[in-house]
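Homework-ish question, so no full write-ups if that breaks the rules, but can someone show me the predicted structure for this set?
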Amino acid sequence: EVQLVESGGGLVQPGGSLRLSCAASGFSFSSSWMAWVRQTPTKGLEWVANINYDGSKNYYVDSVKGRFTISRDNTKNSLYLQMNSLRAEDAAVYYCAKDLMGHFDYWGQGTLVTVSA
Amino acid sequence: EIVLTQSPDTLSLSPGERATLSCRASQSVTNSHLAWYQHKPGQAPRLLIYGASSRATGIPDRFTGSGSGTDFTLIISRLESEDFAVYYCQQDGGSFKTFGQGTKVEIK
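A: Not a homework solution, just the prediction itself:
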């Protein structure tokens, strides 16, 4: 059974940093593209970033370029999202998702990020 | 960047009725790389349709996706109680992916 379990969310002040983690199991993690997708009440779902099998390629939505970094550790079957210079508009539920040829076939339950002073 | 616009924003229907959801792209979607998801509060989104018309594993045949180019449709033939949720379309533009704003299917 495929499982994706996110952690690391919480309350952070504007300008602060947070690192999200996603523990994967039940599939060949090292052969899979992975992604982070976030959900806000106002914008719905928004793709944030994705990364290829070995971490050599990554892509970001324009609004997070230069502030967020997606990475992975295939020895630990884990995906990460380092978020710096956080803004109020980054507040969301962040989902880890398996990226299968451009669509997301498995999702985690999400972790909540709140950005507030 | 391809912008996806879904309509209507909200669909109020009764169980057993047919739901027709639309997703229009601002430019042609490459190779029909268009997917549909179902999302319920507090749950992970669920992939329903990929490649515009292929059902994902375990998705019942009352869900049907169609379309190409810039116009795509998701039809739920007979709504069941568990189908009331928000539905999103999503396109894969290679290095950039976008979602529609969602259509809420609510009980009338």
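Now go work out the reasoning yourself. Hint: Chain A has a mean pLDDT of 96.
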